[in-house]
Design goal:
By secondary structure, the chain is mainly alpha-helical. The protein has 15 helices and no strands. Helices cover 63% and strands 0% of the residues. Belongs to the COQ4 family.
Length: 283
């Protein structure tokens, strides 16, 4: 087959064009910031991002690249179909809201009544030292609407943290990722669980005994959180929203860790006291 001339290449249907372009004949972007990738490039990015994210789970850029590289050809399309089959999901796709510091107006959210979704979200951001603007833009998903679906998942991730109370530390992030994997089936959320190897033995045991089972049960039984129009739920009571979605609040991870730290400090102080008494008495 003779090589395609540029004019004939761009005359091909989009699906066929994706299969035939190379780094020397890259098609134009489908939306601002879009970077078309060949299948080989997508595979290399998936492997490299996965290895880098395991080494450093705080590299959000690598986690974002891994998510986009593994979302096609099925998973982000499935998530888009889930939104299209839901009345609220269809409105979100039509309106395409974005979650940023400007759209959320955090000062106003901080003034909302206790236990509202907006107040919990703002308090969680303040406690964890993050902002709505820390999410990377989608670049490697070809279809513009599917790119928005991935962006929406990415920007609403912190709301899942807020209504569950799980912190950004690796242990809490893994619990949220496990919940999202059961709820969305996005491969990146499942692949992120490889970072379990970085947990301390007590944390790993706690994940398998407490937070892993919680994530699997609630992720499967809950409504698909991609269909929550969070901007319309800011004044909703958190308990009411969790009940509506079918999500049980997990045990407070920060409180569990605090109790264990206090217990270890008390044991250490008691041990040192016994050693001081022993040295002074010669026993």
């Amino acid at each position: 087959m003779p090589p395609l001339r540029p004019a004939s290449f761009f005359a091909l249907p989009p699906a066929l064009r994706v299969r035939t372009f190379s780094i020397l004949s890259r098609p134009p972007p489908n939306y601002p910031g879009h970077v078309p990738l060949t299948l080989l490039e997508r595979g290399a990015m998936a492997v490299g991002s996965a290895l880098g994210a395991i080494r450093n789970p705080y590299r959000h850029d690598l986690i974002a690249s891994l998510g986009e590289a593994t979302a096609k050809p099925y998973f982000v399309s499935r998530l888009r179909r889930a939104m299209l089959s839901n009345p609220t999901g269809r409105r979100i796709l039509r309106d395409r809201p974005r979650i940023t510091s400007q759209s959320m107006r955090l000062e106003e959210l901080r003034q909302l009544p206790d236990n509202t979704v907006g107040r919990a979200y703002a308090a969680w951001l303040d406690r964890e030292g993050v902002t709505p603007d820390t999410r990377d833009p989608v670049r490697y998903i070809d279809d513009p609407e599917e790119a928005y679906v991935m962006q929406r998942y990415r920007e609403t991730h912190d709301f899942t943290h807020a209504i569950t109370g799980l912190p950004v530390i690796i242990e809490g992030e893994l619990a949220v990722k496990a919940f999202e994997f059961a709820n969305t089936l996005l491969p990146m959320t499942g692949l992120s669980l490889a970072a379990i190897i970085r947990l301390k033995p007590v944390e790993r045991q706690r994940f398998f005994e407490v937070y892993g089972p919680w994530a699997a049960k609630n992720g499967l039984q809950a409504e698909e959180v991609i269909n929550v129009y969070w901007e319309e739920e800011l004044e909703t009571d958190v308990d009411v929203l969790r009940q509506r979605l079918g999500i049980e609040k997990p045990p407070d991870l920060r409180e569990i860790r605090k109790v264990l730290r206090d217990q270890k400090r008390a044991e250490k102080a008691a041990r040192e006291a016994r050693e001081r008494v022993g040295s002074s008495t010669g026993v």
